């Protein structure tokens, strides 16, 4: 019984976070082409860098996510193999640039082009949807 209060607080926080993310994510933008409009850290758009060579676009989650760190670790190990094929690597993230740069520097990936996308414009363009609360803590997950 002692765990019910912290669990309820965690669930309430997850619902609030999901609602806030869904509100930002569902914003409809007219004539939206983030592939050409969003500029990455080198000052180029994803369209411009993909014209030079094919890009493996990696969509990251937030920095507190275990999968974010796991993706960076995997990318660190496989980077040379990917680049040997003539493919560039572009990172798309939801977080603040300074925080992301710190994490990427830890993994030696801070020289890769990266695109801050807090409004999820590129995510929508590529057809990626946010998971719902049911997918996070639904009955199927518990079973």
What does it look like?
The chain is mainly alpha-helical. About 7% of the residues have low confidence. It is built from eight helices and three strands; from the N terminus they run H-H-H-E-H-E-H-E-H-H-H.
Major sheet characteristics: 3 strands, parallel
Q: Report the sheet-strand fraction.
A: 5-15%
Percent helix, as a range, is 40-55%
Q: Tell me, what is the CATH class? A: Alpha Beta
Helix/strand structural class: mainly alpha
User: Could you name the ranges where pLDDT drops below 50 across 5 or more consecutive residues?
Assistant: 22-31
- Under the CATH scheme, the architecture is 3-Layer(aba) Sandwich
CATH fold label: Glutaredoxin
Distance between the termini: 20 Å
Strand order in the sheet with the most strands: 1-2-3
Alpha carbon gyration radius: 17 Å
Mean pLDDT across every amino acid position:
75
- Topology order in helix (H) and strand (E) letters: HHHEHEHEHHH
The domain count comes to 1
The number of helices is: 8
Gross geometry: elongated
Task: Count the beta strands.
Answer: 3
Give the tags.
143 residues; 3 strands; Glutaredoxin; mainly alpha; three-stranded parallel sheet
Brief account:
The chain has eight helices and three strands; from the N terminus they run H-H-H-E-H-E-H-E-H-H-H. By secondary structure, it is mainly α.
Secondary-structure topology with pairs:
Elements lengths: L3 H22 L8 H4 L8 H7 L2 E5 L6 H19 L3 E6 L3 H10 L7 E3 L4 H5 L7 H5 L1 H4 L1
Parallel strand pairs: 1-2, 2-3
